[in-house]
Amino acid sequence: MYLIGLTGGIASGKSTVARRLYEHGAVHLDADELARRVVEPGTPGLAAIIAEFGEGVLRADGSLDRAKLGELVFDDDEARARLNAIVHPAVRELSGRLIAKAEAENPDAVVVYDVPLLVEASVDHPFDLVVVTNAPRKTQVKRLVEERGLDLNQAVARVDAQVDNTRRLAIADVVIDTDGTLAHTMSQTDALWADIAARRAARA
């Protein structure tokens, strides 16, 4: 198995790169999706969140109201740390199981684990390669406004709430520059896939 950690700031083209690697045949795991799964109704994760933050964070149907919980923790570092202490270990455990499952099903699998908070959450799976998508702050803000419908202040707050890009770039084995055209991003991703094939052949 060849395990890739894929990270990057919000609206930095991470999903585009992940989708392209998936098209090439990689197994794609999305940390955001796993974070939703570990707090579904009936999970220990949701029970722990209710115990910590109260039943006010639930919708009428018993599912987690992510927007309400987000409001509680967005400007409160201590509350966010308490939430992360519940969610991050649960995601770590689930991702570990899914990576092991992918390897059991295909020992030659290339697994791309798409983790927005790879730096912040200290994700320490034994990655063979860490890939960082990189776009300037102004490009991230512009995409959030134009593609996701946020107003300018919201977009700036979302970008600035994340870890500074220099910390991500410091752990990168490969940086994909996503500030240009879609074709430019795709060609870099295709080159990355060819490089992975070469690395694996050398290792074999």
What does this structure look like?
The protein has helices at residues 14-23, 31-37, 44-53, 66-74, 77-105, 137-148, 152-161, 165-170, 182-203, and strands at residues 2-8, 27-30, 110-114, 129-134, 174-177. With 204 residues, it is of the alpha/beta class. The protein has a five-stranded parallel beta sheet, with helices on both faces. Helix 1 packs across helix 9 (182-203), helix 3 (44-53) packs antiparallel against helix 5 (77-105) and helix 6 packs across helix 7. The N and C termini lie close together (11 Å).
Which key phrases capture this entry?
204 residues; alpha/beta; Rossmann fold; 5 strands; globular; nucleotide-binding; P-loop_NTPase
- Helix fraction, binned, reads 55-70%
Euclidean distance between termini CA atoms:
11 Å
Q: What is the strand tally?
A: 5
What's the CATH class label of the largest domain?
Answer: Alpha Beta
- Helical segment tally? 9
Strand content: 5-15%
What best-fitting shape do the alpha-carbon axes yield? globular
Q: What's the name of the CATH homologous superfamily of the largest domain?
A: P-loop containing nucleotide triphosphate hydrolases
Whole-number tally of structural domains: 2
CATH architecture of the largest domain: 3-Layer(aba) Sandwich
Catalytic activity: 3'-dephospho-CoA + ATP = ADP + CoA + H(+)
Pfam families: CoaE
EC number: 2.7.1.24
Keywords: ATP-binding, Coenzyme A biosynthesis, Cytoplasm, Kinase, Nucleotide-binding, Transferase
